[in-house]
Every structure is written in structure tokens, then in C-alpha cells.
Structure to design on (375 residues):
């Protein structure tokens, strides 16, 4: 597998890095992440104008028709700059699910509005291995009556459309497309350790929905959500690589500037070794992410996709946690202060490590798969 970027992909990386350096610098991130935090509407509009919201959406739905590799490249740069936009929740999660349902009029229209950046979307993924759903959908006339709660939905406070799974009376799951301003729907913003992202608790009280608002159900929905979780894990892993890379860059810049015994701290062997270990972690994670993204674009089997996603999210999360912790140490006394940026990246790395599921859950799924195959 050739993981070298082609000319078009290098152009995406360079233009994204340049744009985000200008429009998502540290000062702007700090301003956007101030209470209530996590939302830079002007930056979101800029991403929409560049076509990024439809990076992997089909051209028929107004997207660019590119693949997961290109999405991962953008995610890496967004993570590097801690962009305060609902990009991961809207594009990596919601758009991935809607792409598979584009043959339905409601899903098709939703994907078009998402690809254009006209509306923000949020998908409430069920908790891994959830035994008792907290939301139910019951038939009512020609439509549905939705009631329940979905805790910790990423970007819910700024989303205009919500994708909400619920248990139907026949015991199967259904996925419902619900406007955020629907009567009976309430979204409560939740504080988080990472202020550059928004989360919310969604509550539905007897919301009447049309039949067309159920866009997926049954075993097909279970497979769709499992696929979406794996694709989102690769995208989130790419973002973690960006976090790790920026932690490395910040550490290198500071140790080159900081003087001790009339020499840059970066010239000391102990510091060189620590920075070198950070670089190895970053490059190892990047290779795992790019490999998983390339594989995902070939439409692999669910088992192969799960293994690739697990490797990517494991390597990238460990790299992000390691590099951000090292960055704080290599910054010395100022590394613990609010004025310097390492703590912002540590918060993102830590929050993202639990975002879709803990690493132990991903590894357990692969272990079960391998053991079942051996049996």
C-alpha cells in the first residue's frame, strides 16, 4: 500500500494548514472557546465556502466526491489548530451515516444542506454495547412519537438537525431525523474538560414525527452505525495526530528559544531524546491513520475495517496523550500556566480518548473477532 500523498492531496494539506494558521490561531481559539465555548461560526462559514463540509459527500449531493484519505488530511489540520467548529460531528459522523442513505429523499436533502455548510448536524451514536436504550419511538397514525434522552451528543447545542436513534415497539432500532427547533425537543449544553468543543444532552418529550423522518431501521441500521463508528474513529485518529504534531512543534520551538547555560535547551541530549521519541510516536500514528483511511476507501469487510480503525485510534490516541504530556514537561514551569498552549492540547487529547469509546473497548472488539475466527 502506497501511503505517499499525490499532488492533489498535498495541495489539500498545504491550503488547509495555511488557512487554519490564519483563521484558527491560538488567540482566536481562546476567544471562541470562552464560555459557552466551542463554536466559531465565522470559521465554519469559511470551511463551507472552501467546500470542506462536503469533502467526502457525493457530487450529486453537492459534495466534492473525495474519499476518507482527504477527510483524514483535513481532520489532521483541524486538530492541529483546535478548530472550534462542529466539523467532526457533522462531516465525519453525520455525513458518513447520511451518505449510505442518500437514496431516501429526507436523507438526500439533509446531506445536501450539510455539504453546503447551510446547516450543522449532530448524530447521537448509541453507547457501545448499550443494553437499555433511553429513547423510544412508538407508531402514531402515519408517523411516530419520539420520547427519551440522548446524553452527551457532540455539537448538539449548535446543530440545526439531529440524527437520533431510538428503540421501536418491535424491538428494532430506528434512526430519526429531527429538527433542533421541533416542539418538545430540548438541548442542554454540558461543560467539558475540552472547551474547544460543544456537547449537549438532548431530551424529547412526545415529539410527533412524519413517517419519512425515520431514515433507517432494523439490522441495516445496526450495520450502518457500526460502519459509521469505524469511519469516525479513523477521522478522530487523524485529528489526534494533528494534536500530537502541534504538541511536538510547540515543544521544539520553545526548547530552541529557551536558554540555559548560554545554550538552547534543545541542544541538551536528554531533551533531544525526548523530542525524538515524540517524533517517533507521531510518525507511527500517522502511518496507522493513513493506512486505515486508504483501506476504508477500498470498501473493506466490516471485520477488516474494525481492525484498521482500532489500530488507528489506538496509535493516534496514545501518541496524542504522550506528546501533550511531554509538551507540558518540556515547557518547564510555564508548561502548567494558562497563558501557554500545551494544556489546551492535553485537554483535547484526553477528551478525544473517550469520544467514541475507550481504547479498551476497541481492542476488546478485535480480540473477540480474532478469538471467534480461531475457534
Amino acid at each position: 500500500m502506497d501511503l505517499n500523498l499525490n499532488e492533489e492531496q498535498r495541495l489539500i494539506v498545504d491550503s488547509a494548514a495555511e488557512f487554519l494558521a490564519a483563521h484558527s490561531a491560538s488567540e482566536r481559539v481562546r476567544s471562541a472557546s470562552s464560555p459557552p465555548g466551542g463554536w466559531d461560526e465565522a470559521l465554519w462559514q469559511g470551511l463551507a465556502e472552501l467546500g470542506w463540509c462536503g469533502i467526502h459527500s457525493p457530487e450529486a449531493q453537492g459534495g466534492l466526491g473525495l474519499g476518507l484519505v482527504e477527510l483524514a488530511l483535513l481532520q489532521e489540520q483541524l486538530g492541529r489548530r483546535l478548530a472550534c467548529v462542529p466539523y467532526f460531528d457533522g462531516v465525519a459522523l453525520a455525513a458518513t451515516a447520511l451518505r449510505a442513505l442518500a437514496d431516501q429523499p429526507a436523507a438526500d436533502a439533509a446531506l445536501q444542506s450539510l455539504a453546503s455548510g447551510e446547516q450543522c448536524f449532530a448524530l447521537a451514536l448509541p453507547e457501545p454495547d448499550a443494553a437499555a436504550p433511553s429513547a423510544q419511538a412508538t407508531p402514531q397514525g402515519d408517523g411516530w412519537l419520539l420520547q427519551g434522552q440522548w446524553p452527551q451528543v457532540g455539537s448538539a447545542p449548535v446543530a440545526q438537525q439531529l440524527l437520533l436513534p431510538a428503540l421501536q415497539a418491535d424491538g428494532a432500532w430506528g434512526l430519526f431525523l429531527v429538527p433542533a427547533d421541533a416542539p418538545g425537543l430540548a438541548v442542554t449544553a454540558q461543560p467539558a474538560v475540552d472547551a474547544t468543543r460543544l456537547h449537549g444532552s438532548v431530551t424529547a418529550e412526545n415529539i410527533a414525527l412524519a413517517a419519512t423522518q425515520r431514515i433507517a431501521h432494523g439490522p441495516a441500521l445496526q450495520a450502518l452505525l457500526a460502519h459509521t463508528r469505524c469511519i469516525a474513529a479513523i477521522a478522530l485518529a487523524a485529528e489526534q495526530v494533528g494534536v500530537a504534531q502541534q504538541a511536538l512543534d510547540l515543544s521544539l520551538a520553545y526548547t530552541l528559544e529557551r536558554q540555559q547555560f548560554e545554550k538552547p535547551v534543545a541542544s541538551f541530549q536528554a531533551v533531544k531524546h525526548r523530542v525524538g521519541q515524540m517524533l517517533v510516536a507521531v510518525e507511527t500514528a500517522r502511518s496507522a491513520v493513513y493506512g486505515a483511511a486508504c483501506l476504508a476507501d477500498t470498501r473493506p469487510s466490516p471485520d477488516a475495517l474494525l481492525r484498521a480503525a482500532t489500530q488507528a485510534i489506538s496509535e493516534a490516541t496514545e501518541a496524542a496523550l504522550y506528546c501533550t504530556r511531554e509538551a507540558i514537561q518540556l515547557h518547564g514551569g510555564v508548561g502548567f500556566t494558562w497563558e501557554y498552549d500545551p494544556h489546551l492540547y492535553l485537554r483535547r487529547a484526553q477528551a478525544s480518548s473517550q469520544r467514541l469509546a475507550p481504547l479498551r473497548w476497541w481492542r476488546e472488539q478485535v480480540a473477540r473477532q480474532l478469538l471467534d475466527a480461531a475457534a
In short: The mean pLDDT is 93. The longest helix spans residues 218-257.
